Amino acid sequence: MLLKYKNKNFPYPVLSPFTDDYVGDNFKIDFDFENNNEHVNIETNLKLSSEYINELITRGKAKFALRIECSKSRYRRNYTFKSRKFTVNIDAGMIEGLVRLSPFIICTSSIDDYNCDMFHEDYGDRLYALNSGDIIAVTDEIKFYPNKDKDPLEKVTSMFKFCLNYSDNPSTAYDVDHGGNYVKILMSESSHKILQTLTSSKTRNKNIQHILSAKFIVPTLIYLIDLLELSEADEYESYRWYHVLKRRLDELGYDINDLSSNTAVKLAQEIINDPVTSSMSVLEEQFLGGDYSE
Amino acid sequence: MSEVKYLKDDSLDNLKKSIYRNLEQYKKENVWLDDYFDEDNYSLELRDSFKIKFNLLTDNGYKDDFENVKIIYDNFKMLTPAQASDERLWSYLTHVPFWYYMIKRWSVRERENKDENKLKGFIKSRYFFGFGENTDRNLSRNGIARLWWYGHISYDESSLDRYHLTKVLLTQQDFGQHLLESAFTRNPDITKAILSIFKELDEEYVKRDYIRPITEYLNIIGGVTILDEMTKNKFREIIYDKIAELE
Fold first, then answer.
1. With an 8 Å Cβ cutoff, are B187 and A76 in contact?
2. What's the CA gap between A208 and B139, in Å, rounded?
3. Where are the domains of chain B?
4. Among residues 164-223 of chain A, which lie with CB inside 8 Å of chain B?
5. What is the mean pLDDT of residues A160-189?
6. Which pLDDT value is given to residue A240?
């Protein structure tokens, strides 16, 4: 959306970082957000150095505006304020995925004599007539992904999905694809079929989960932990699995941005409550028929 | 009666990649996913699920859209926009509980003489989401999602007849679709202002396809002015001026 404003020529001077319509003045936004699965709280602090526009705001002829848009869930609202610092609270169910904040300063009523000393000399002494809603300042858009670790459809949160590997010649029996909201554990057709049978409602055995966790989830988590240690801090923030993992690590007292002091093998088992031990118990019962522990 | 469910990610991937292979299935009257996926492993129950105890009208094609919008929106009003923008949900609903409606309203059999690529594109857009990241089009074209979203953008809680603006929206198929695909109608105040203004006008003005030049004009104005701040009277002035120019 703001790309439109970046390359735009307004029919009158507009304060922005993209043009020199106003010489020496500037308009910027500082922003912070926090959220849980119920609400998204956005705090903004707008910085404006133009005396002229400040005066328009004080006189009630202009105001700050913040358009918040989420294209995936068709959310769009325009919030307006007289003060530079303001907070907006949005129901988390209204947004999903990328959110864009577009800050403006707009006229609140007609201005017949829009002119300022700070205009570029090319504009001379000309007076401009503006209408209510017309933009007089715009600045860089901000994009962010709210940390929603809960799938909006799911009853229970999960970060893994077992999927069929559609590659023409899968080179291994299983592979991992972390490029999406879920971490996909990709399996060959034959393995996937067996998995579906094992986990179907007719044949499901609750002990299957322990074995699957030890066999697939632990190595996948080890892979993800190594990946995060080698990556930039926010590289995977747009994916839901990242936030699910972050929340679990927070619960265990670890910082997802600094996992270097722990081995990935140890962390992976801790994250899903030691599935190796529970799967060994299942195997013991299945194949040895009893308690062989000393 | 079926529960409200949604497709698992890999089931959705599988179905979308297998449209060519499953073309004949889309011409049949019976639901086929249970057999295709070997039992019930392909879907999950929606949070706050309920049993679907109603059918959609199928006799009159587009003319049944208004009643069907009311049925779907009244029954699925608990969905949040975040849930209602999810392909997994709508793809399940088109393929299972509302399959009979889909094969009547968006018949593949009637289009079987079309080029195979076009047929695949048709199935993708009506039975799934067929437009990648272009989410407005995904929602306006999927056979069941469109009914919910038409209800959502036009439902007027302040009126005794909550669907009085929906009637205007659905006066003509292109009109509703075009509005739902315009970015500024993501703001419900703008949508309801535009619909109210068209409600004042004769139905002819909807049918004359004035909506395209009007939305283009509003997009131009939106480059300089924040449309979200415009009053309904200002919208009326702009729309009436534009119609006068077009006549």
1. yes
2. 39
3. 1-152, 160-247
4. 164, 166, 182, 184, 196, 199-202
5. 81
6. 82
